[in-house]
């Protein structure tokens, strides 16, 4: 990488590096966030849209990353699950305040394999796995006690911590990126933005005005 006065060949800060693959750059930024963020560096806002084109956004946790894309898990009967079944287009936004950096991802989702879902589900704490059974995610809950009673019921049904099967409605989505944008805060709001777009199977870089 050619460097001059702390800049790379595109004239932006060297923390953007000169990588052709944005997944590799994301891994480096994410590694720095793991060192500096107080809580949940893998927290990410996921935006979906329903059949009426109503956007909806919420925070989830990134639980998998590969060259293919970004993985998170959820109840497929939840609001986000139903929206993604209706419209596979989605986006993500990571914001790391400690670094004053942001990453945005745009693409479409696919369901992870059953083995991927099983492997991750079985790695979760016992109470988390029970909660996946007990929670009718996004549905109306008349009172909290109803939920706690359902938790107790499933604890009785699955008393052995290593033998809690994955619910059929619980799995993961993988966001397959077609664009990944890296953002760095700048003084006077003169931010720096590097965007990658996938074209014909390869990534192309471009700078964006702040």
Polypeptide structure, described:
- The chain has 210 residues and is an alpha+beta fold.
- It has a domain at 14-112 and 173-208: Pnp Oxidase, Chain A, CATH 2.30.110.
- It is built from five helices and nine strands.
- It has helices at 22-36, 79-86, 114-123, 126-134, 144-157; strands at 43-49, 55-61, 64-65, 70-75, 89-96, 101-111, 170-184, 192-199, 202-208.
- Strands 1, 2, 3, 4, 5, 6, 7, 8 and 9 form a nine-stranded antiparallel beta sheet that branches.
- Strand 7 (170-184) and strand 8 form a beta hairpin.
- Helix 4 (126-134) crosses helix 5.
- The protein is elongated, with a radius of gyration of 20 Å.
- The two termini are 24 Å apart.
- The mean pLDDT is 95.
What is the CATH C level class of one domain, in words? Mainly Beta
Strand % is 25-35%
Major β-sheet, in short? 9 strands, antiparallel
DSSP summary, beta strand count: 9
CATH superfamily of one domain: Electron Transport, Fmn-binding Protein, Chain A
Uncertain regions: pLDDT < 50 for 5+ in a row? none
